[in-house]
Design a protein that fits this description.
single chain; 91 residues; Rossmann fold; five-stranded mixed beta sheet; 5 strands; globular
Length: 91
């Protein structure tokens, strides 16, 4: 049996977080309302298989978050929810 994948979802809209979390029942979904919280959670979670992030947020953009995660979550891939861009994170 394959391990359940861990997804970190970041958005400053609580409804969006709830919808995405409910849409992914077969995954371990962790949600964060801002970039700073996402970075703290990422440091505590261990392996993150996918990051889904809003692009425009108060504390940092989705690109800034992915850039910061590259140093802390090797092997993570990110997708900007607003731009549908894929940003592979080097292993």
């Amino acid at each position: 049996m394959a391990a359940v994948k861990r997804i970190l979802v970041l958005d400053d809209d609580a409804l969006t977080l709830a919808v995405i979390e409910r849409a992914l029942p077969d995954y371990r979904v962790t949600v964060a309302p801002d970039g700073d919280t996402a970075l703290v959670l990422a440091s505590q979670l261990g392996t993150i298989d996918l990051v889904i992030t809003d692009y425009l947020m108060p504390s940092m953009t989705g690109d800034e978050l992915i850039g910061r995660l590259r140093g802390t979550a090797a092997g993570t891939e990110g997708a900007d929810r607003d731009g549908a861009q894929r940003h592979p994170v080097p292993r």
